[in-house]
Design brief:
317 residues; alpha/beta; 7-stranded mixed β-sheet; 9 helices; globular
Length: 317
Amino acid sequence: MADDKFDKFKIFSGSANPPLAEEICRYLDVSPGRAALGKFSDGEIYFQVLENVRGADVFVVQACSQPVDFHLMELLMMIDAFKRASAWRITAVIPYYCYARQDRKDKPRVPISAKLVADLLETAGASRALTLDLHAPQIQGYFNVPVDHLYASPVLVEYFHNLRLKNLTVVSPDAGGVERARFFAKKMDAPLAIVDKRRVDVDVSEVMNLIGDVRGRVALVIDDIIDTAGTLVKTAEALLKEGATKVYAACTHAVLSGPAVERLCRSAIQEVVVTNSVPLTPEAKKVQKIKVLSVAELLARGIRSIHEETSISELFI
């Protein structure tokens, strides 16, 4: 992409996941944008763009991972700085969209935090957004600017195709993830099973029933996020009780907070395949059963399509 056409094409990274942003830049053959990003002594964020971005097509890569509020505020300040520096267009590239699990009022007197984050991004000056595996696809509708919603499924499907697992059944750990698991099952030419669970508290769920047959088969549990891993471990236990021979797991966002790593280590899950949409914690990096795949090329192709104004639909195949 080293061409006069891309003189005004710039990619900047927040502090959440610089290695991912650097990998994206390598795929696109561009240098990362120069900026000063730090903190004042009281913890407030300091940011300054160190190169001319007037009239530029700017992409800000920032996963809103832990610490979530800090990285979200950092992203908002970066967008504001580019807006005030007269960038032509500012695209927020958010591999992990935070506060997405409160996407509707399912209880009295609760916020719709996914909508609030969309409003904050627009107010800061984002012209559009590029995201990966939103917790709920309808979050795209909370934006009044264009949103390109990519899926990590092609990356994960390729990996499991190469494993050549026999007698495979793809499993959705809840009703909300059926569409994601169905797509995966179709690509793997495998049957689909669904776990019916009841959530008894925030981050606490109880597995109830299994819809489908896994007896004598290898089960592959597909989800978008592994947070505390409580749901995943209970799902794996239920599948093994129902006669599954092995259980694999795959997700896009390895949040892995609280007791997640310890639970995965103690579980009977053969392998947990995740992407680098968020960086693994030092503790998680030591776990051999956690396999990390890169989504840098996928995001790079999405960025290229946005800049060149070409169709992005080929990335969903």
